[in-house]
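User: These chains co-purify. Model them together.
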Amino acid sequence: MNLTVRRIGRLLTMTREPLVDAAVVVRQGRVVWVGAERDLPAGAAGEEYDAGGACVVPGFVDAHTHLVFAGVRREEFVARLGGESYDGGGIAVTVDATRAASHEELVDLAAARAASALSHGTTTMEVKTGYGPTPEHELRLLDVIASLSRRTPLRLEPTYLGAHVMPPGRERGDYVREVVATMPRAVEHGARWADVFCDQGAFTVEEARRILTAAREAGLGLRLHAEEIAHTGAARLAAQLGCASADHLEHVTPEEAAALAAAGTVAVLLPTVTLSLRSDAWGHAALLREAGVELALGTDCNPGTSWCESMPYAIQLGCLAMGLSVEEAFRAATLGAARSLRRDDVGRIAVGAWGDLAILDAEHEADVVAHLGGRAVLRTVVGGFLH
Amino acid sequence: MNLTVRRIGRLLTMTREPLVDAAVVVRQGRVVWVGAERDLPAGAAGEEYDAGGACVVPGFVDAHTHLVFAGVRREEFVARLGGESYDGGGIAVTVDATRAASHEELVDLAAARAASALSHGTTTMEVKTGYGPTPEHELRLLDVIASLSRRTPLRLEPTYLGAHVMPPGRERGDYVREVVATMPRAVEHGARWADVFCDQGAFTVEEARRILTAAREAGLGLRLHAEEIAHTGAARLAAQLGCASADHLEHVTPEEAAALAAAGTVAVLLPTVTLSLRSDAWGHAALLREAGVELALGTDCNPGTSWCESMPYAIQLGCLAMGLSVEEAFRAATLGAARSLRRDDVGRIAVGAWGDLAILDAEHEADVVAHLGGRAVLRTVVGGFLH
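Assistant: Joint model of the two components:
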């Protein structure tokens, strides 16, 4: 699609200093020109959009979601806020509802969430399976993601998270072997990534190592839920395996952060989880930054610990609760998240990259951080199509 | 205006247990009937609105705003997040911009914020002066609030906050005497309340006592900014004077909380300020609840420490960051805030009260707390008019 966006008051490209009074030209979905509007070449492209002085940033890249699920966890949420220990059934509620839902129902539910994310400026999204949680059900969820990709303009990055929840009654070694054996089929069902929930009460570091090693052999990229609930050594494993991302990291140590930086593993920060869980784990962002780790942001969209499709909200909490600067947070939500997906065609506005833009409802990106509870995004552009 | 709202999936009236499958009838702006839809009397009222199973709550009452101001404080905000000590000029930036703005400009700016608040379900709002900050300029800001009340459907409660910022170069005693002397004129200019920013670096407890005593003599109701920045004894003063509200209270002690409870002073909690300032002052809500103080919520909408017009966001942070239950937070945002304004005609859905409703974009009020960054309110009704 061809589109010229004019009258951009302030443009963050993520590849150079912010531009003022700028324009962007997209042709056949790709950016072909970026610069000051006064230099705009004549006869640039078809449709024109007048940004009216708004600030424009790259379309957001959500580096971590569990978008495919059914059911609600309202009782658990209300009980948690009421100070009760009752967990309302927890993740099992989601697993049961997801198993009971048809393919079409799951696609419909995920598509509504994707539409919400799009309205909040997201243009690329990582999507995990994980509520199967047997390999057969997990492969079915990969099929849901494949169907979803035909229903939403978002660029999806499907992740096979077979090792999310241990199915009740299964022997651990058996189940891990089954997940390992399923990797080639996960690739056939469209997975590009593998992930493991490696934490206290979930999968061990050694189990995660076996699973991710098999995933790499099958040709999948590697991600890892690490150091969220307790310190387990998962971050060190992520560095050893050269994972593209290590996610959460609330309990990471400075030494592990240095190892992640050296390995080029991107840290995916998920501030909405900390808020949802009423935790006070806000300090790890500063520690990771200090170690020179590339930071990414994600919503962790899921029914239990972060019901959120809004990257601007993740940015806002990343700043106000986690202590990122405005510049760091916007980089993490675009370029950093793209790097966690090993992509250089999204997360920046540059010639050759996809024409994916978030047109902010503000003159300056800082205003969507400062303005609490307000609307952040006016329009979202994916591959030159205005949404 | 006459309106029947049907097909309410869940109705919180604040006067009895939640109703299911309910309806509300408003005639000439007032609620004339509330109950289960199957009992709806025939020929109830003119216009009908089908809530489609949504949850409906009383229109929100925002108990604390500084809605009338000009200028932006972006530099200060960016610097604060970047860890710099530079304050960008702070409140003086707002004072200068507000003084430089015309009456019409100030009304326009405030009207846009009021429209945003309305879209977030607010139907009654307390509005303070305070960026004058000389009595003459403060009276001008009361005139702005009077003009605003003709531009917005919101029910406004104007507060004279002559003692907000000490004007540079003035002798304290002189200035306090001037504020005291201005009280009768504040009433003439439409004020219903007086407030003092009683805190470290602002006005002392003794100054606040003099000002509020004069305000009471002039017929104004009393509110007090208390114990926000430091512990000063302001909460005890609020209890002694029988203030309708004591606001902020981050540093309140259990003894002072007990005094507020005994005096019937409502505690106005402002969680968006704590987030905006990157503070960790979240514990006072539990302490106040423990003491049996009636709780209210407000946005504290202002350009420096809480740029926010959204009561659902205050509710969300009240729960997730401050530890209120869902039930407590909705009560604080409706009935509690109405009590802080000594009103029983708003903040509840009952025969005789104003027909002010927030129709949530959810089946259950807990979902607008759990769903982060999402839209909370579908439609707002003020006096039977749909907005």
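Chain B has a mean pLDDT of 96.
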